[in-house]
């Protein structure tokens, strides 16, 4: 049965296809009836007649309708759709969980349990919104991950199969044949890609231009955590701890190709797909700058800032607990002071690397370590120690989840129920850890200063009222105002 088509205007999608508009890359896919192939809007192949194309919200829906992935435009490499990042409903959360590999590790039952709904209800909602159920979405995710690894690495097909989340080689072969119309070995290059040396894997993560890499790296460099992060003018490097592995990642934006080079060292590749998702989130690679600029550019205060910094991103977080700890430490202190406190915490309670790699010496401490250890002697106030312990205990006992797939409203409420966590801290955590593009800390001192410069009322209520017109991109508005203050203030 043919699956549900994309709900967007057909003429708009077809015009985007004809012009190969990169703004729509990853937001929909095109099935070509005459070839049986589905493509990205930027595919270089000759544009099919309108009567012969079908539009789908996701690659899985196109595959379920009988189309196979294009070998020219590589649908598996496209940026993710931002539409699901804006939304915080059941379907959006389910899609984020599936992208993180929850179905692979916990099955559909585990996915439904995480979302507190029945499997039947979850499947019904996904079918209504995207045209396919959770199993089909997970299967497409595995196939696309495998296709990316085959194309961009020299790993063996067996290693790729299990790194992508397949349960067996047979399942891997059958899924790849169904999704792409050929065996996995057909994708293997004669000359394997460069590994990057030192046991590293190298992948290319695509984004929609423009991309203000300098501003993003500058923001992260100002807050770099000693021993855990290392940031130069052109790249970001850090230690990472994942459910089944540890390692080091390096991200280097390449503006000429609209990609970010990801170099990975992991002691177990089973977390590779999750790590790629975390890296995309950290650099906000699924954003659509044109859509954000269209809304924010209507405001007289923001318009010159957007023109000055097109493609400004909202940094995400590699580790939700780590970001929350740093947010609590950053309350009512300068950025440099918060960074110093976080560095002391990491040095004392973080796990040391077996061999330091440059300035990288530690993995960030676990919630259990923060909850159990004595936090005295680090320069922390008593209230901050209480707040950190409460946060660590809530994460450790599972009553608080700081991931992109968490319920945003409930998580913010749970955060604010912790001692020492107010609206500013909760909003900042929602902005970077939960990936909420509309999170907005209206009481922030920097935002008040920005409004004051424009002779506008600076009370949180008046700022909140003015920012209503910025929805659903208030987090980006905040970062534009912060970036402007940072560049114009000593």
TrEMBL record:
| Top enzyme class | hydrolase
Cofactor(s) it depends on = Zn(2+)
List the keywords (alphabetical).
Answer: Activator, DNA damage, DNA repair, Methyltransferase, Transcription, Transcription regulation, Transferase
Which reaction is this enzyme known to catalyze? Hydrolysis of alkylated DNA, releasing 3-methyladenine, 3-methylguanine, 7-methylguanine and 7-methyladenine
Q: Which EC numbers does the record give?
A: 3.2.2.21
**Does this UniProt record's set of keywords contain Nucleotidyltransferase?**
no
Domain (HTH araC/xylS-type) ranges: 92-190
Q: Is Protein biosynthesis among this UniProt entry's keywords?
A: no
PROSITE patterns, per database record: HTH_ARAC_FAMILY_2
> Which PANTHER family has this protein been placed in?
DNA-3-METHYLADENINE GLYCOSYLASE, DNA-3-METHYLADENINE GLYCOSYLASE 2
The protein, known as:
DNA-3-methyladenine glycosylase II
- Give the organism, scientific name: Dictyobacter halimunensis
Organism lineage string: Bacteria, Bacillati, Chloroflexota, Ktedonobacteria, Ktedonobacterales
